[in-house]
């Protein structure tokens, strides 16, 4: 079998190329009709990292003849749905043997009557070349706003988890064999990362749009309750109910403005994760605290400290890119971090010198007038008695990430009329 592997891969790649060509023609045809696709959910892709990094990936070595079921909560509803599956960081073709989309009934359960097959360019199986992504054909499934969906992918070949989203904050269910259509699956290896699934879009009426939340672990929701949808973008979705506005989360835990490691730097991924998302009209940027905090700790022991001017220059680049695409860009102040991770091996994340950089950055965000609007998350979450710290009721306990109530307070601090 090994001797025939190169020929097998060549056939797979040829099939993938033809599928991608047909898929692009289908997308082009639909954009010229009455169809209006809007991203209603996203998970920004990351490459896995080597074992010498201070944080483990918490992923299996590979999937093989297994079904991966992932539960998501959309923001905006619609009558038809498309999913995007990515092999962006893969070195080999990614084979999807079968995919299905269903309403989630909680946990690993789906609603059988609301379970639909997913095809790609008319085919049940598709092979995705390295570095590529594929968009599914439209799935006829009426989805309400804030509905929970389950996407089940069958991976028949040995498949390293090369393209993933590390901090999914939802249980991912993995079971042996093709059980994509099973009403419930008995997961052998529950995980909390996401794999290959990067976007869900809905066919929504024209005039509707999306707000992207672009950030790091505080946008991604680290410190909030598992499977609860208690990130600040989730609470913002609740506030926008009935206003025909989607909210998509483009946060990556560990993300930085200027450097790679747990995902690419902000300038490298801004177009992919925000500007290229269908329907995006505005973006909220909350990023920079890791650029300040990482240098000198095990996450970046040899990294030189950043300056406020370096971070401001990066913000200006994001502003320029957004405005070239007629996307409104809103700056959010960096939240308090005194005592951050002091009771972990990451001690040193906070220092008085680093705090001065945060203060300088926040002052620029508030007063420069270069963002289209400002959200003061710092003011919304800080302790009036010790403004460099979170209000205790909002602290997850690590003094860097809010807890559920802190994320709720952040969403409530957003003036809705500033968004669009």
Automatic annotation (TrEMBL):
Name listed for the protein in its UniProt record: SGNH/GDSL hydrolase family protein
Signal peptide residues on this chain, from the entry's feature table: 1-29
Entry keyword set: Hydrolase, Signal
Species in which this protein is naturally found: Marinobacter nanhaiticus D15-8W
Keyword Lipid metabolism annotated: no
InterPro entries noted in UniProt: GDSL (IPR001087), GDSL_Rv0518-like (IPR053140), SGNH_hydro_sf (IPR036514)
MF-aspect GO terms: hydrolase activity, acting on ester bonds
């Amino acid at each position: 079998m090994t001797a025939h592997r190169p020929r097998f891969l060549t056939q797979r790649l040829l099939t993938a190329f033809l599928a991608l060509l047909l898929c692009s023609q289908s997308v082009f045809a639909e954009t010229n009709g009455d169809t209006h696709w809007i991203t209603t959910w996203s998970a920004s892709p990351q490459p896995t990292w080597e074992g010498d990094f201070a944080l483990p990936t918490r992923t299996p070595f590979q999937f093989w003849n297994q079904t991966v079921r992932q539960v998501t909560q959309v923001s905006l509803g619609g009558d038809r749905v498309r999913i995007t599956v990515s092999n962006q960081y893969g070195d080999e073709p990614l084979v999807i043997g079968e995919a299905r989309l269903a309403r989630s009934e909680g946990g690993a359960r789906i609603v059988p009557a609301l379970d639909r097959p997913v095809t790609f360019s008319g085919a049940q199986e598709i092979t995705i070349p390295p570095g590529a992504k594929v968009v599914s054909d439209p799935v006829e499934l009426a989805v309400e706003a804030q509905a929970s969906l389950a996407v089940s992918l069958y991976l028949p070949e040995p498949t390293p988890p090369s393209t993933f989203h590390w901090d999914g904050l939802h249980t991912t269910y993995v079971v042996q064999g093709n059980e994509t259509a099973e009403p419930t699956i008995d997961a052998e290896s529950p995980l909390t990362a996401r794999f290959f699934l990067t976007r869900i879009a809905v066919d929504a009426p024209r005039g509707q749009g999306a707000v992207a939340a672009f950030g790091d672990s505080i946008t991604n929701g680290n410190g909030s309750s598992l499977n609860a949808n208690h990130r600040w973008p989730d609470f913002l979705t609740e506030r926008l109910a009935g206003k025909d506005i989607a909210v998509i989360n483009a946060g990556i835990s560990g993300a930085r403005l200027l450097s790679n490691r747990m995902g690419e730097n902000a300038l490298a991924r801004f177009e992919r994760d925000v500007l290229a998302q269908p329907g995006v009209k505005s973006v909220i940027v909350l990023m920079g605290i890791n650029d300040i905090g990482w240098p000198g700790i095990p996450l970046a022991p040899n990294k030189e400290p950043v300056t406020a001017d370096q971070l401001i220059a990066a913000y200006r680049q994001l502003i320029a890119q957004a405005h070239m695409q007629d996307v409104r860009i809103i700056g959010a102040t960096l939240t308090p971090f005194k005592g951050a991770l002091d009771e972990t091996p990451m001690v040193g994340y906070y220092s008085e010198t680093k705090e001065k950089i945060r203060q300088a950055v926040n002052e620029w965000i508030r007063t420069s007038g270069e963002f289209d609007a400002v959200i003061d998350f710092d003011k919304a979450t800080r302790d009036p008695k010790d403004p460099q710290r979170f209000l205790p009721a909002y602290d997850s306990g690590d003094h860097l990430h809010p807890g559920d109530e802190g994320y709720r307070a952040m969403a409530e601090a957003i003036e809705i009329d500033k968004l669009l």
